[in-house]
Amino acid sequence: MANQLKPPPPDIVIGRLPLYLRALDLLAQEHKEVTSSYELGERLGISSAQIRKDLSHFGDFGKQGTGYQIDFLIGQLQHILKLNRHWPVVVIGAGHVGLALVNYKGFQDNGFDIVGIFDRDPEKIGQEINGVKVMPDSELVTTIQEYKVKLAMIATPAAAAQQSADIIIEAGVRAILSYAPITLVVPPEVHVQYIDPVSKLQHMTYYLEE
Amino acid sequence: MANQLKPPPPDIVIGRLPLYLRALDLLAQEHKEVTSSYELGERLGISSAQIRKDLSHFGDFGKQGTGYQIDFLIGQLQHILKLNRHWPVVVIGAGHVGLALVNYKGFQDNGFDIVGIFDRDPEKIGQEINGVKVMPDSELVTTIQEYKVKLAMIATPAAAAQQSADIIIEAGVRAILSYAPITLVVPPEVHVQYIDPVSKLQHMTYYLEE
Questions:
Q1: Nearest CA among A210, A194, A207 for reference residue B19
Q2: pLDDT tens digits, one per residue of A116-163
Q3: What ipTM goes with this model?
Q4: What is the pTM of this model?
Q5: Which has the closest alpha carbon to A171: A136, A144, A139?
Q6: How many angstroms separate the CA atoms of A152 and A186, rounded?
Q7: Residue B131: exposure state from Cβ atoms within 10 A (0-12, 13-18, ≥19)
Q8: Chain B residues with CB inside 8 Å of A177's CB?
């Protein structure tokens, strides 16, 4: 299956694999055992040809005409995305967004264990949310090192986000999901994704009739 | 400037315009008056050629060698994205995510006015968060019609999201930002964007060394 001459899959393809995984998980919950690129495509609003092409970057997961074994494909995608393990995650910022993140069941259900939430506001420190204690920023670096944390979610105000990023990258974080509405400057080995609901609304207003 | 023969700009270009707008807003806050595709590109991690190409879909906004007038370009982008007005928005679901949305200042700062948050849990109804009252689902349709709401954010559990979408689309909503981890089935005239932090984390674990 491995072919050393193949170019690495494009990042946009990697970004679709979690969507395939989510759709497959739902199919498995419906006690289905087999699916097709057509069925997946219908559910995701992606063409079946695109799905087959995306998956072909990683191997041959289905037989022509018989479709995909759902459990097998879930296992393969988890393996490719390195999800057959738990990942410790830290949350920076215990405001409304940070607290919503700590309260969101979906992280733990998918193997992302929030090991700490950090804030600089003394009034917030010591509070416990969903079993996770708010800790002072001064404990951020030791927590990242102790749990070998590679993933962080930044939920600070925009003005504090870059400084937080610098500190956690220095401590060993290599992937950041940022809710702060600024573009972070990071070294090339660090991956950043953004969640910005205002930009998503502004994208859609383009299409609205007034 | 208008050229009827031009094809419509690709959706991926539209999706980058809010990022340009955000970067320009920050430059304006720094009291800068002029910028360049190079400076914008540096701040956004997007090539200057890409930025010039994206903007060229909509007109000629800068002079070769003199760059862009920031205030002018902000005004143009706001006009293109239909942001030179306020948009009423409803939030469906008053759980942790819904409450974080109502508490987030960024919507109002950008002209998105949350006119109501809706839930089916009688214990939540009547609560007031950040000046917005939690209302029962039964008032959703009348609120959408009264305020001519075209935009909604869905923050319900996955199992309730499709039903909520059906109801609000029937009432007149034409753009949905969904926090529920399922793909919504909507008619072609309705735009949907998703916010799914788990998928974003899973995208990045691919690149992490274990």
A1: A194
A2: 999 999 999 999 999 999 999 999 999 999 999 999 999 999 899 999
A3: 0.94
A4: 0.89
A5: A144
A6: 13
A7: exposed
A8: 197, 200-201, 204
